[in-house]
């Protein structure tokens, strides 16, 4: 995996299926972090130098997506900006931002509408990818 990622990131060597089992078992044993603690836990994992920790952070967010609210969008934006790469942004935008923005559409003006004109390529990419899981209800005019 390190070679595939052009040696830009460090890895423990834990394969994705094994990591998913670890996360699933952890959640079964300990539950998800409470909504107010979720950002702290995700930031701790995201700041770790090993790539599997960042992926575990995203896994936690996906498991907690029903708990995500407007207060988590700055966290998601920070994640997109701090460890930007295809695998992170392409997952965070539709899997984490998408459900949250679909649940609270008024947030679209506060985030993706600003991201689409941001100089940062990763924010612009997130603005295009967030509705991937709900194509049939996407406001097509927003993207034209």
List the helices and strands and how they pair.
Layout: H1 16-30, H2 35-47, H3 51-63, H4 73-82, H5 86-103, H6 107-110, H7 112-115, H8 121-129
Protein name: DNA alkylation repair protein
InterPro entries: ARM-type_fold, DNA_alkylation
What does this protein structure show overall?
This is DNA alkylation repair protein. The chain has 144 residues and is mainly α. It has helices at residues 16-30, 35-47, 51-63, 73-82, 86-103, 107-110, 112-115, 121-129. The chain has one domain: Leucine-rich Repeat Variant, CATH 1.25.10. It is built from 8 helices and no strands. Helix 1 (16-30) crosses helix 3, helix 2 (35-47) packs antiparallel against helix 3 and helix 3 packs parallel to helix 5 (86-103). The protein starts with 15 loop residues before the first helix and ends in a 15-residue tail after the last helix. The mean pLDDT is 86.
